[in-house]
Amino acid sequence: MDDEPKSPAEMKEIRLNRKIAQDAEGIKAMADIAAADIAIRKRTADLRAQRLAREAAERDKPVEPKAKAKKKKTAK
């Protein structure tokens, strides 16, 4: 790094550039979060639709009871 003392104008410019960079990073981070939120909501809606369709199909087609095996009686 440069060990020379900076003038007040140079320090102000450095702070301003740092602030602009931080603002840009913040905007990008918020956009990434919003995109992830939209993706999660879409995936959740798709899974909910699949679950409801599966449940409706199961409701329309009841499960047949399994036949129990009969035990043979042995003659004594």
Describe the oligomeric state of these chains in a short phrase.
single chain
Number of strands: 0
Q: Report the order of strands and helices.
A: H
Low-confidence stretches: none
Distance between the termini: 103 Å
Large-scale geometry:
rod-shaped
Largest sheet: none
Question: What does the average pLDDT come to?
Answer: 89
Q: Radius of gyration in whole Å, from Cα? A: 34 Å
How many H/I helices? 1
Percentage of residues assigned to helices = 55-70%
Tell me the structural class: mainly alpha
Strand content: under 5%
Describe the fold and architecture.
- The chain has 76 residues and is mainly alpha-helical.
- The chain is 70% helix and 0% strand.
Sum up the structure in keywords.
76 residues
Any chance you could write out the topology, listing elements then pairs?
Layout: H1 8-60
Short description:
The chain is an all-alpha fold and 76 residues long. Helices cover 70% and strands 0% of the residues.
